[in-house]
Design a protein that fits this description.
Blueprint (H helix, E strand, L loop, with lengths): L7 E5 L5 H12 L5 H8 L6 E7 L2 E12 L7 E10 L8 H13 L5 E4 L16 E11 L11 E3 L21 H8 L7 E8 L2 E12 L2 E11 L4 H11 L3 E5 L8 E13 L5 H8 L16
Parallel strand pairs: 4-5, 10-11
Antiparallel strand pairs: 1-2, 2-3, 3-4, 5-12, 6-11, 6-12, 7-8, 8-9, 9-10
Amino acid sequence: MIVKFQNLSFRKLKISDYDEFRKLFYSCFKKKISFEFYKWRYFNNKFSFCYGAFDKYKLIANVGMVSIQKSKNSNDIIYSRHSSMVLKNYRGFGIFSKLLKLVKKKFLKKIPLVFMWPNKNNFSNFDIDKKNILKKKYYLYKSFKISNLKKKLSDHSISELITYKKFIKNEKSLFFKDFYYFKKRYLSYKKNEYFLNKFVKKNQTSFFIIKRNKDKSGFINVILDHFGSKKIYNNHLSYLIKNLDKLIFLSKTRRNNPKYKLINSLNLKIGFMEKLNMKKRYNFLKNQEIYLGDTDIFITT
């Protein structure tokens, strides 16, 4: 198959392009994507969008750009790249690279940086100089319950976020996360799939936001986010690993422990539009946290 760029058109997707998006998503990931998710993820504000390549009326490649607040100033935004996909017969012709170059030229001129979550075959970086890209690898683990807990886990409805609003403080996250972020992220779409787990030690309180997925073996619990005390974060995680069966969580380091097994890895690239000196490169990721809820990997986990 020979692909000619002059036969392709490139543009922002519309709400009415959902069927084409759905077919491309299923073809690439063998997963169904709902209209509600498509609308919530890419059309819930004036900044987020999808940009695609069309062969006549057929969507053959797409990149999703989700806007994120960088600070309290609502006009100060950055982007996170999602739903990167190219139809199989159209791969290897530079279509995705062309897509990203167009997105950079049209929409990223005043954006300081962009987050990318590439798989092993995705090498395109918006034509950003390699010297201005930070790379970090994370590890995805699944735990196996090793104790029978007599005391019931402290699970709460995600709707109780409002009750625990005072515990939400933007501290170590790479993204700006206040109460509005959590409300928009976890209460505006399928909130029945999420729940809170609360953990208290002495005068410290910690919360994990967990999504309950289902596979052939039954239910799987996926940690998506955290707020509250960072001092007891590890205590809280250890407690869940010990007492909650089939728990999936993200780690900054490789772990060697019989309580859980490595099931996947996650690559993060941060592309800076301006040159970054070595000191800033080092300090940017120092002590910062990334969670599965920051990505779209939880869709296919």
